[in-house]
Amino acid sequence: MVSSHASPSPGPAGPVGPGGPDGKGSRPNAAFRQLRGALSPAEFAAAVRRAAREIGEQVSCDARYIGRVESGEIRCPNYAYERVFRHMFPGREPEDMGFVPREVVRGRGARGRDPDGRPTGSRTANRTANRTEQPRESDVLRRAFMTGGTVAAVAAASLGAAVPAAPAPRGPRRAGEAEAAAVEQAVRRIRLLDDRHGGDGLYRRSTRPLRIAYELLDADTRRRSVAERLQSGAGELALSVGWLAHDSGRFADARSHYAEALATARVAGDAALEAHAFCNAAFLARDAGRPREAVRAAQAAQGAAKGLASPRLMSLLALREAGGWAGLGDRAACEAALLRARTLFGRGPGDADPEWMSFFGEAELEGLEAQCRSALGDWARAAEHARRAVALQDPHFARNTALFTAQLAGDLARGGAPDEAAAAGERALDLLAEVRSTRIRTMLAATARLLGRHGGEQPVAGFLERHAAERKAGG
After folding, report:
1. Does the pLDDT value for residue 271 go beyond 80?
2. 8 Å CB contact between 276 and 232
């Protein structure tokens, strides 16, 4: 949290409008400057990074970013920064910090007005709509998403807590800000739980909020901004649920959910959602042994993402393409895609980076290259990249730490280093005490088979005995 000596006075300095007096250009964000208090931009940026770590977020905040916000160049933070700022300044909305509504920045707020003549996205309109567009079923929906469907019940599935699910709500006649926010919150919390615990045990409980989200698409909405949020939220939720199915080895279910999200993106004309859907489809195709489909899906994702101004997204999509080329054994095409991915990654994070990409840092870059090198049979180079991925991984992403540790174990086993492979396998088993992922367990089972001929030697014997015992126990 920000230092006490930097705490501002309670009253905000007022929100910043879309631009200067003529509506063009940028206008200094006095409210955010007040929040910085006596800290220098660099000191405040460090406080932002600390706050991000407290809530498991990943932001690359520096003095330049703070300057861009205060100058008005950044009119609305991305979702990751918004969560960090809310954590630092509890009770303040983004508008209280001098930002403009997200739908205005994206151009959606300028498309029309609500039935009362107010611009969509204005705070007054939103507050009035919240009073008039929340029938009784809104409370039921919030309980379904935030307790029964995504937080307590999903955590119950992964952590063993006994929390009853909320009663199934009837289809609402009308949907407003509360319902859109509930869908968005469901997406964030499912992703948070997945990062920490993996997909096994979460998938079945997550399908119910997904069903409710798609029911909401048939509800009456008075404002276009709400309808668009519901469409985007339902599509992102379908991708999150599909990923849980993917990680738990339910490939057919994952494919169905990804297709559902892609259809939603196409209907809504949402390029960001379409790119995300194709990205996940490429990953699934690679894991399912369809490398050519993986290449095509990754290329389609890059086509959809061209106008999104996010080099980091394009970097990830290039890595998805590289994975497909590696599966096809096309070394030259894989190398070219990997080089493109690293070049794009080197351009750094940006405000247009999608919220769902919070996992994509240097560790993920190294880990995905390790997977490509492994598919090409370059065991030594694969192990080198996997080792870097483990060392660089943020502890919040426990599932990915376990994944890359299992990757390292497999690469070492294939590369003729059985003792090191067994040690890495033991570390992966330690991590699986908190992570449930069929995908990772399948990787460790393959490593155990490879090390079987060294079973009379230590430390290989210890790993094999422990792995066999945990498999027998159903771990």
Report:
1. yes
2. no
The one-character DSSP state at 308 is G
DSSP assignment string, 75-115: -S--HHHHHHHHHHSTT--GGGGTPPPHHHHTT-TTS-B-T
Which two structure tokens, joined as six digits, stand for 268?
A: 């809504």
Q: How confident is the model at residue 129, as a pLDDT?
A: 37
Q: Which of 159-168, 171-180, 425-434 has the lowest mean pLDDT?
A: 159-168
**Residue 164: its pLDDT value, please?**
28
Please report the domains of the chain, with CATH numbers, ordered by start residue: 4-108 (no CATH), 134-269 (no CATH), 289-360 (no CATH), 363-475 (1.25.40)
Per-residue model confidence (pLDDT) at position 436: 80
pLDDT value at residue 205? 77
Amino acid at 160: G
CA dihedral of residues 145, 101, 49, 56 (deg, nearest 10):
10
**SS3 (DSSP) at 304:** helix
Q: Which residues make beta-bridge pairs with 174?
A: 220
Of 88, 240, 82, whose CA–CA distance to 150 is shortest? Answer: 240
Of 164 and 212, the one with more pLDDT = 212
Residue 90: closest CA among 8, 161, 17: 8
Supply the pLDDT for residue 195. 67
What does the alpha-carbon distance between residue 248 and residue 245 come to, in Å, rounded to a whole number? 5
The single-letter DSSP state of residue 3 is -
Number of C-beta neighbours around residue 261 at 10 A: 27
**147 or 74, higher pLDDT:** 74
CB atoms within 10 A of CB 187: 27
pLDDT tens for residues 215-229?
A: 888 888 888 888 899
Among residues 273, 261, 268, 180, which one has the least CA distance to residue 222? 180
126 and 172 Cβ atoms separated by less than 8 Å? no
Query: Can you tell me the mean pLDDT for 395-405?
Result: 87
Compute the distance between CA of residue 29 and CA of residue 102 in angstroms, rounded to an integer: 16
120-129, long-range: CB within 8 Å, 24+ apart, which pairs? Answer: 120/223, 120/224, 120/225, 121/225, 123/15, 123/93, 123/95, 125/223, 126/101, 126/177, 129/176, 129/177, 129/222, 129/223, 129/226
Please give the backbone phi and psi of residue 15, each rounded to the nearest 5 degrees, phi first: -70, 155
Q: Which residue has the tokens 């890495």?
A: 424
Mean pLDDT of 121-127: 39
Q: Which amino acid is located at 2 in the chain?
A: V
Element (H, E) at 43: helix 41-54
